[in-house]
Structures are given as structure tokens and as C-alpha cells.
From TrEMBL:
It comes from Ciceribacter naphthalenivorans. This is XdhC Rossmann domain-containing protein. PANTHER family: ALDEHYDE OXIDOREDUCTASE MOLYBDENUM COFACTOR ASSEMBLY PROTEIN (PTHR30388), MOLYBDENUM COFACTOR INSERTION CHAPERONE PAOD (PTHR30388:SF4). Pfam families: XdhC_C (PF13478). Gene3D superfamilies: NAD(P)-binding Rossmann-like Domain. Residues 77-218 form the XdhC Rossmann domain.
Length: 235
């Protein structure tokens, strides 16, 4: 690998930005493409597929054999609320390959006994997210029903361009949430990115079923995420 590309790759990985090292198998030359770079034509199409799938492999582009070495930041799920849905979601997320953190300042809920082995933070989201901010490879799920706890991380997720933002609550609850976000200056497009009620509509009735619907929604959002830096949905 070219040393300049190696330095660029290390910088991208440190910043949790996706990158693909494209190597020409014919002459050994390589180039680094960072997610968000605009590449047109067949090469651009191949890069989009690789960024979305996360899978390395070879393709022939314009008669040249190319190998795509894909480096994606590990996606993570941040759940606001140590509730029954969170208990069910954690093992499912681990099986699907997602790192997961649960944040809840309510120490009666956020206990090691209820969440054995979980990365559990019994603190306010404002403080917990200061040390590990949300980013484009984060999914935010807010499930406390308490705007004093949920509102800050939802706003932070929208600002950070998280690939998924979901919030539990009825239509009435979400309507009130929308009004608060509008008053804070968020646009209709930004607010429209929130999946509420959280998860794919499968008729979920139990915490475990809601967790299944939520994880499915997160996976769908991750595989169809925007590849630019706007945070908007892909075309």
C-alpha cells in the first residue's frame, strides 16, 4: 500500500469514517476513497455497493481488475432508557454484530442486576455522550417516554447525522416532540428522519417484539444509509 494512502486510511479510521482501498490487480497501484467522495461511472456504482455491504472483493471495472478492501467503522446502537425493550434488544444486537450502550440516569432502572454484561451508563445523556459522541455510524433509540431524558440525545443524533434515530411513543407523544424540535430550530426534513413509533410496523405488542422491530429498522437504515455528509436519505 502507498504510504500516503496508509496515512489517510489511518486518519479515516481514527475519525470513524468509512474508506475503501482500491487496488488495481494489473499494475499494483492503489487509491483510497473515503465515504462522501464523489466518484462517477461504474467505479462509483461499485463503491456504493461496497460501502453499503461492507464486504471486500474483486470487480472488473472498465476492463481493469480491481480489488476493494473495505474499512467500515463498527456500527453502534445507543439506547436511551434501561427498560424491558432494552433488555431484549441487547442480546439481539450483539448477535447482529452491533455494539450497544444503554444510558439512563434513573439508577433504579440502570442496575447491573437487570443488565448483566451490558455497557450500561447510569448518567444523564448530556454527560454520557460528551465522552463518546454520536456519529454517522451510530443509531440512537430513545425509549424512556420522558422528554427530560430523551430530547437531548434525539437532537444530538439529528445534528450528528446518525444513520438511525428512533423514538418510542404514541402519535400524540411524538406530535409534542415535533413541536419541541421545531422550537429548537430543526427543519421538517431533519424531524422527518425520526422513526416514531420506533421500529418497523410488524404489529409488535411485547417488549421483545418491539426490540425485533427496532433492530430490523436499524439494519434497514444502515444498509440504505446516505453515503454523503448531509445525513439525508439516499435516493
Amino acid at each position: 500500500m502507498d504510504l500516503v494512502n496508509l496515512r489517510k486510511l489511518n486518519a479515516a479510521r481514527s475519525a470513524r469514517r468509512a474508506a475503501i482501498l482500491v487496488t488495481d490487480l494489473g499494475d499494483g497501484t492503489d487509491r483510497l476513497v473515503v465515504e462522501g467522495d464523489v466518484i462517477s461511472g461504474p467505479l462509483g456504482e461499485a463503491l456504493v455497493q461496497r460501502f453499503r455491504s461492507g464486504k471486500a472483493g474483486a470487480d472488473e471495472i472498465d476492463g481493469r481488475p480491481l480489488f476493494f478492501n473495505v474499512h467500515l467503522p463498527p456500527p453502534r446502537i445507543v439506547v436511551i432508557g434501561a427498560v424491558h425493550i432494552s433488555q431484549a434488544l441487547y442480546p439481539m444486537a450483539a448477535i447482529a454484530g452491533y455494539d450497544m450502550t444503554i444510558i439512563d440516569p434513573r439508577t433504579a432502572f440502570a442496575t447491573p442486576e437487570r443488565f448483566a454484561g451490558v455497557n450500561l451508563v447510569a448518567d444523564w445523556p448530556e454527560d454520557a455522550l460528551a465522552s463518546r459522541p454520536l456519529d454517522r455510524y451510530s443509531a440512537l433509540v430513545a425509549v424512556t417516554h420522558d422528554p427530560k431524558i430523551d430530547d437531548f440525545p434525539i437532537a444530538a443524533a439529528l445534528k450528528a447525522g446518525c444513520f438511525y434515530v428512533g423514538a418510542l411513543g404514541s402519535r400524540k407523544t411524538h406530535a409534542k416532540r415535533i413541536e419541541r424540535l421545531r422550537s429548537d430550530g430543526f427543519s421538517e426534513v431533519e424531524i422527518g428522519r425520526i422513526s416514531a413509533p420506533v421500529g418497523i410496523d410488524i404489529g409488535a405488542a411485547t417488549p421483545a417484539e418491539i426490540a425485533v422491530a427496532t433492530l430490523a429498522d436499524i439494519i434497514l437504515a444502515f444498509r440504505r444509509r446516505s453515503l454523503d455528509n448531509s445525513g439525508s436519505d439516499p435516493a
